[in-house]
Design brief:
With 356 residues, this protein is an all-alpha fold. The chain has 14 helices and two strands; from the N terminus they run H-H-H-H-H-H-H-H-H-H-H-E-E-H-H-H. A two-stranded antiparallel ribbon has the order 1-2. It is globular. The structure holds benzoyl coenzyme A.
Length: 356
């Protein structure tokens, strides 16, 4: 388990009000000093009640507002894992930029991969509002201590994989992320609105690739089917463990961070996607898949949770390769970060000298 150190005093290079004290914890400190009754977690019960009433009333919690430490920690955990997923998610598709089959496909793919980088940046920004630094989160990712979505540990050997990622992975992402636009934490909810708009475009471009392949030559149809065969089950795993095994869902739903459980979203995804596969003329690789008219939903076969756990433990097909690629990119970008810091320091010194 990762322990994230919450910064309570200084963020170098930032102007916080309160004489350099971190603005996001200032409200917390002030509130804590008005010592009232405390609950088992050592939190002021009056503040806790007020917080819970605000959640109940669908008010957004903002960075300077008082929040329970566990709520803050849950958000840092989820938002940072989400940010890492966006950044690692650039890799399987980035592999295909130089090999995309036409100039148009290449430019679309470049734009999509760039969007994912942007999503990572908004999300690291949202996590920072909770008092943790982006550098610290990235260090945890590079040290192999942080989780990111299991889905990005699978390989992309053919062009059809790029179609399958857009259609299924971005499709699953939209299903999971649209409810996050109503998350109780304001900065995360607002970041998700823009991200979801872009994800819709990503999903359509993926489906368009699949449609072209499914209506193409026999070999292209086989490629599309093979990609669906390989990506279907890992896409279902993206929604996380079943509700009975999920550690965090119940509390996150109470806090209105999550609006649906993992199984509810997985079911919506299956119901939405199976007709799309039919339209493509492709077979979903699940012999137990059937329409349950009484329940008005699809029934599907068991998920291989052992495979999911193995991927989470770092033993998926590409875990090592993904981390190695991120570490190399971080090293290769060192000179850019150093140059930007030197430039900022030089200008700050010049501004200080001019003001003196
Ligand atoms: N992979 O109690 P649970 C994208 C972990 S980016 C890895 O249900 P929670 C895209 C979970 O973290 C897609 N780990 O947890 C980008 C927890 O471990 P810890 C990413 C997983 O948080 C580029 C443990 O299992 N989307 O779409 O209530 C190109 C127990 O789980 C996974 C997001 O991050 C997994 N699949 O629910 C294209 C969305 N599932 O932290 C596309 C935001 C579970 O206790 N996140 N775990 O060590 C969420 O909605 C929730 O965090 C989850 C999990 C539904 C993922």
């Amino acid at each position: 388990m990762i322990v994230i150190r919450i910064i309570t005093c200084h963020y170098p290079g930032r102007q916080w009000h309160g004489g350099g004290a971190c603005m996001y914890t200032q409200g917390l400190n002030e509130a804590a000093s008005k010592a009232g009754a405390h609950d088992a977690a050592g939190e002021d019960s009056a503040l806790l009640q007020r917080f819970e009433a605000r959640i109940e009333a669908e008010e957004k919690i903002e960075p300077k507002d008082w929040m329970p430490a566990a709520y803050r920690q849950t958000l840092i955990r989820q938002i940072s894992q989400h940010a890492h997923s966006e950044i690692v998610g650039m890799l399987p598709e980035g592999n295909w930029i130089t090999r995309a089959p036409s100039l148009l496909r290449k430019s679309i793919l470049i734009a999509k991969v760039q969007d994912e980088g942007g999503h990572g940046a908004y999300l690291y920004g949202a996590a920072e509002t909770l008092g943790v630094s982006r550098a610290e989160l990235i260090d945890q990712l590079l040290a192999g201590q942080a989780k990111y979505s299991s889905i990005f540990n699978y390989p992309t050997p053919t062009w059809a994989d790029i179609g399958a990622i857009g259609w299924l992975v971005d499709g699953a992402a939209i299903m999971n992320q649209i409810p996050l636009c109503r998350c109780s934490y304001g900065p995360y909810a607002r970041a998700m609105i823009r991200i979801c708009r872009e994800e819709s475009f990503h999903q359509r471009q993926g489906y368009d690739i699949m449609l072209k392949l499914a209506r193409g030559s026999g070999e292209q149809r086989r490629m599309a089917q093979d990609a669906l065969d390989r990506w279907w089950w890992p896409s279902l795993m993206m929604f996380g463990p079943s509700d009975t095994a999920s550690q965090h869902t119940a509390q996150s739903v109470r806090w209105k961070i999550k609006r649906f459980t993992n199984d509810e979203l997985r079911q919506k995804f299956v119901d939405f996607t199976v007709p799309q596969a039919k339209f493509l003329g492709l077979n979903v690789p699940d012999s137990e898949l059937r329409w349950d008219a009484a329940a008005a939903q699809h029934r599907f076969g068991p998920i291989d949770w052992n495979e999911f756990q193995q991927v989470l433990k770092g033993h998926g097909p590409c875990n090592r390769e993904r981390l190695a690629a991120r570490r190399a990119a971080h090293e290769q970008g060192r000179w850019v970060r150093e140059a930007a810091s030197a430039y900022a320091a030089r200008h700050a010194a010049a501004a200080a000298a001019a003001a003196a």
